[in-house]
Design a protein that fits this description.
By secondary structure, the protein is α+β, with helices and mostly antiparallel strands. It has 3 domains: about 60 residues, Wheat Germ Agglutinin (Isolectin 2), domain 1 (2-Layer Sandwich); about 70 residues, no CATH class; about 130 residues, no CATH class. The chain is built from 10 helices and 10 strands. Strand 3 and strand 4 form a beta hairpin. The chain binds zinc ion (ZN). The site of zinc ion has 8 residues, from helix 2.
């Protein structure tokens, strides 16, 4: 039996790489699988099929792209380039602008310009891909609730189409989970507070004066002994000194002002600090009028 296989094998025509090649297909140089010719790209310039199969070409391309994406210098450069074209803009040579891609050449400002037919193809492919993704997302069984803890300690945050590469699921570490919950609540409290004055569509970064990450770092820098991202938030029932919780305190209380402009100023990070819940409650609405006026004055002049 073995001899017969060997004999059969010897009859097959082979190319210079000792790979089988015949009228129907050939062996791929990378995976060495025998595939029909439609499993290979046709290289028009050299008028022959590529030596690696489509699958292996795509894999190699993905690896090269990943390498580029993971290079910090390249990423910095990519983030700092001037972006002056919008998709579909036509250049003198007839090519259409597709977009900026970190995989494209830095010498060409990371711009991707396509010929009209490949531009149309790309649009169609993208639209089909979006539809497919949306379909997959809608049909996905959504069995986890926010806060579900996996065996490895990762915590479920949400299902979202943006997380398509991770089966639409976003899992985060415990620390990140607590911070994200904290950021969410801070945003909610801010919106509902400004909502009382009819304020909306405010950029929280502009009001807090810091982005989420820097805001978290700032609050953390003010942690008192025992404060962690794990014991932030409200408690149920009586205050338990064994299991204390902290809040974010407005040093000058929100109740000390009565208009939206001043309220926004009091949400500036410099007026916020972490405080144990029991102290925060006993502090109540006490404040010094002089302190408030000088804080507001300072914030107004900083604008
Ligand atoms: Zn292959």
């Amino acid at each position: 039996m073995e001899q017969l296989t060997l004999f059969e094998d010897m009859k097959q025509p082979k190319n210079k790489n000792q790979l089988i090649i015949n009228d129907e297909g050939k062996q791929c140089l990378s995976c060495e699988e025998f595939k029909l010719y439609d499993g290979f790209y046709f290289d028009k310039r050299n008028n022959r099929y590529t030596s690696r199969c489509k699958e292996c070409c795509r894999l190699a391309q993905r690896e090269r792209d990943l390498e580029k994406k993971n290079c910090p210098e390249r990423r910095n450069l990519f983030n700092s380039i001037e972006r002056k074209y919008v998709q579909g803009e036509r250049r003198a040579d007839g090519r259409l602008f597709w977009g900026y891609s970190i995989s494209a050449s830095p010498k060409k400002n990371f711009e991707v310009w396509l010929k009209e037919d490949s531009f149309d193809n790309s649009i169609e492919k993208r639209d089909n891909w979006c539809l497919k993704r949306k379909d997959q997302y809608l049909n996905k069984e959504k069995k986890y609730k926010r806060g579900y803890v996996r065996d490895d300690g990762m915590i479920f945050w949400e299902y979202c189409q943006r997380h398509a590469s991770n089966d639409f699921e976003k899992w985060v570490s415990k620390d990140d989970f607590n911070k994200m919950r904290f950021d969410d609540t801070m945003g909610c409290n801010l919106r509902s507070n400004l909502g009382k004055f009819g304020g909306k569509d405010e950029l929280r970064e502009d009001i807090f004066g810091l982005n989420k990450k820097d805001f978290d770092d700032y609050i953390e820098s003010l942690f008192e002994e025992g404060m962690t991202w794990d014991n932030w938030g409200t408690w149920v029932g009586k205050w338990d000194p064994e299991n204390p919780r902290w809040h974010v305190d407005h040093i000058i209380p929100l109740s000390s002002v009565d208009n939206i402009e001043d309220t926004k100023l009091l949400w500036h990070y410099t007026n916020l600090r972490p405080m144990w819940g029991n102290q925060n409650l006993s502090k109540g609405k006490k404040y010094c009028k002089k302190e408030r006026d000088s804080f507001l004055e300072e914030r107004r002049s900083a604008k």
